[in-house]
Amino acid sequence: MxxxxxxxxxxxxxxxxxxxxxxxxxxxxxxxxxxLLFLIIFCALFASILAPTNPYDLKVVSILDSRLSxxxxxxxxxxxxxxxxxxxxxxxxxxxxGLRTSLVVAISSAVIALIAGLxxxxxxxxxxxxxxSFLMRIVDIQLSFPAILVALVLLALLGKGxxxxxxxxxxxxxxxxxxxxxxxxxxxRNKEYIQAASCLGLSNSLVIWKHLxxxxxxxxxxxxxxxxxxxxxxxxxxxxxxxGVPITEPSLGSLISNGFDFILSGAYxxxxxxxxxxxxxxxxxxxxxxxxxxxxxxxxxx
Amino acid sequence: MIKNLLDIDNLNIRFFSDQETVNAVRNVSITLKNAExxxxxxxxxxxxxxxxxxxxxxxxxxxxxxxxxVMFEGQNLVDLDDKAMRIIRxxxxxxxxxxxxxxxxxxxxxxNQLIETIKFTKNIDDVSAYNEATELLGSVGIDxxxxxxxxxxxxxxxxMRQRVVIALSLAGDPDVIxxxxxxxxxxxxxxxxxxxxxxxxxKKRQLGVIxxxxxxxxxxxIADRVTVMYNGSIVETGNVRQVLSSxxxxxxxxxxxxxxxxxxxxKRFQSIDFIEGNTQNHKFINLxxxxxGKKPNQKNSNKAISINELNKxxxxxxxxxxxxxxxxxxxxxxxxxxxxxxxxxxxxxxxSGKSTIARLIAGLVNVDSGSIKIFDQEIVxxxxxxxxxxxxxxxxxxxxxxYSSLNPRMRVQDIIAExxxxxxxxxxxxxxxxxxxxxxxxxxxxxxxxxxxxxxxxGGQRQRISIARALASRPKILICDEPTSSxxxxxxxxxLNLLKDLQDELSxxxxxxxxxLPVIRQMCDKVAVMRKGKICEINSTENIFKNPRxxxxxxxxxxxxKIENIR
Lengths: 302, 567
Fold this sequence. Notes:
- Chain A has 302 residues and is mostly helical.
- Chain A contains 12 helices and 2 strands, in the order H-H-H-E-E-H-H-H-H-H-H-H-H-H.
- In chain A, strand 1 and strand 2 (79-80) form a beta hairpin.
- Chain A is elongated, with a radius of gyration of 24 Å.
């Protein structure tokens, strides 16, 4: 059976999008950031294998190794390429383990915030009217406080621990997702396919789940990447201030704060290298997210 | 004195991209004389707008003139640089675009925009430029031009804005005007005035006018000569009367046959085969045995839809106090009945409330007051009982914009299967797949469509998918809200044919909403004419078109662009 041919109507290209996507991703800045990102995730995943020493194994850590400069040999013979901190922990190993903590906190808080924000945004966008106004005022209130302040207060209430930090970061961030999803959902909601679905008699929850959600989610992909970078830096700030993750499970932020006491006495490496890693991580994620936005934006496809 | 103003000789335009090179315009030669309106007509993708843009060197980036000349006053416009071309565009060749809203600067008064243009093209002082601008505004038929000089574009209606755009294009005393779909965004009554204006200006000022349009009615009304384009090439050029009355090329014949006629009702659109090529006509289904024909709880009532004193208003301006709120009465005390198996048309201009009625009946918008009965079952303000749900399922809608009425993330088979799965009207997946295939065949698509996404289809094909989706919930009433207004005429003819066939076979009741009177004439048995939320006249189609009683009906009937006169 032959396909109906419509000569008079425009030809439609099929399968060219993936080609354009690929070409966009081969820009040097994207490649570098992508490479760095993979490296960082790889390090975080296999921290216990990759790290020269285990900085949390008290049997290995010796106070005699404290404040070795980068390149010195430690007592057990391994070279501390990035030096050691005040307690004699290898800074390189601490960074690799710290990355893991930072990424776990950032990604899990981003996922929780995204799901909560998605839910609120879809409801607000779909129903509109009073429900929308009510939810968006909550979002406004949430967004009118600085993120750090809200997180500080929350941590003061919740107490210490990684799970508490994740909860605090999720509460700080959900509103941004909610507002973005709502904007996308309102645009989609007014399209005729949503009306067609209602006309078929589908229940509201089904219309939201099957029709509205898949079409409103794309701006979130970019936002989630950028927000992950953001939450890494919030987490680092909190840890630096001493309210973040406990020192027994240090993240990049607590490593920076850990070396802060020694920075004036010349042991710059304890603070400097974790700081550099933080910068590299956030920058890599941001550049990647930016490129993602360019690629996913249909208007930029020229 | 008649001379050749513009000579386009063997023009070839290509669009280059990574994937393919598109020959948008192929070997086109056109001459334009003074005091002449030349129409270029064709469907979307025919290359007609590309020619218009190429003449004034406004081709968009990937497009390139690869061969040919555009001779104007002894110069080849193709060779001119940007600066020289800007002067030509200002002084010698005026452009009128489709959307008057976007071609005027919203933060400048009409007067200032005119004065600026006049000063640029003529090098005269402010006072005489002002005088000339007022005169120009008067000459395009705007009353009280002195007062209107101070107005901003948003204070004008669409038709008046288009008059201002025309005035702007005349500001430099051009010899040639290129009008690209100048009336497409306007209502019929305004369209007629604008066309009349362009025609009279052309004769008075001895202008050469090129009018680019998809609408043969417009061509018949205004053009002296017409060029028919198809797929980038000219298929036929000649005197309007001769081309429209005895077209030589098959494409022209099909195109003219596809235009709905306002004078007689035809059973189907005939001889439109050239355009869709080897169209596979939809397959017939034996309703006695097929799923589509089986339907539980059939109600036997003669009234399919019965509407009584229906009201709906929208808030235009919100305010805390009720008296400060401003409402728009979209539907104002409307009552009518639609008999079972009837095709009922609602016709009216934009904003007349016809689409709101459709949405009220489909249950997409809440009713303020009044009653809607579907097969004697009241559906307004009812609890969700089985009867109400069944009644609402009996009504399905086909929407105007095929590009937004299908979920872009779902495959065609899932789109069509959705109502069947939701209501569990079929027993297993195998049966569902069979039904979906049958429905697709029924609307003239093949099974290869099943796994594709909507963006892989053209507008007409998408509309077929929409129809299949509507049929999947086995409706008895089909509401078509401007189902063909965003489609080309030839595609429109096929979709209308399909709807007619489906109605005959499935004995559907149809509520057909359109602003297009000839389409209504072809599709409907009975028509309601709406204006500003009220019904002016309800009568059989024959009576509405032959002996309209209401003054508004008389007016809109008389304004239909008529090809028949020429035919």
